[in-house]
Amino acid sequence: MKHLKHLLKHPLKAVPNSVAIFLLIVALIGFIDAGYLTVEHFQGRVPPCSITGGCETVLTSPYAVILGVPVSLAGVIYYLLILIGTSAFLESKNLNILKWTLLVTAFGLGASLWFMYIQVFVLHSYCAYCLGSAFTSIILFAASMEAIKKYQIELE
Predict the structure, then answer these.
(1) What is the domain range of residue 25?
(2) Are 65 and 54 in contact (CB under 8 A)?
(3) What is the mean pLDDT of residues 66-86?
């Protein structure tokens, strides 16, 4: 928690647009993936899954919905927040927006690790789309932590 407070109080060094553009592209891939799963859910379909073969098991399990809402919709919202944050940074160059956007990736990582655990240890089935989303979340988190490390001004 101390490190989080430090990140929020201290400004980042000048961050090149390429960092935000990379995050934007990865978040767009995640948004499309999660959006596709959400649309398929509301249309009552399970997308084909030839690579891993476990999409039906994973996407029709009790873990795929919370209170009747597909968890993929939470993914859509998560990726949308990253898209909005990085776009707002590119437009305004407001480093606080970027800092908060980078920190939000920790939530995506946490959710992805949880759902990967469910696939591996509970369901023993793998959904290629879900793994793709987890992969994009991991990339977003890793890139965000690298950006924070590389561009943060240490004032301690």
Answers:
(1) 16-151
(2) no
(3) 97
Residue type present at position 145? M
DSSP SS3 for 12: strand
- Domain membership flag for residue 116: yes
- Note the pLDDT tens digit of each residue in 82-101: 999 999 999 998 888 888 89
Q: How far is CA 25 from CA 17, 87, 90, 131, 150, in A?
A: 12, 11, 13, 18, 20
Residue 6: both structure tokens together: 């430090």
> From start to end of the chain, where are the E strands?
65-66, 69-70
The C-alpha angle with vertex 104 and arms to 98 and 107, in degrees rounded to 5, equals: 165
CATH code for the domain of 117: 1.20.1440.130
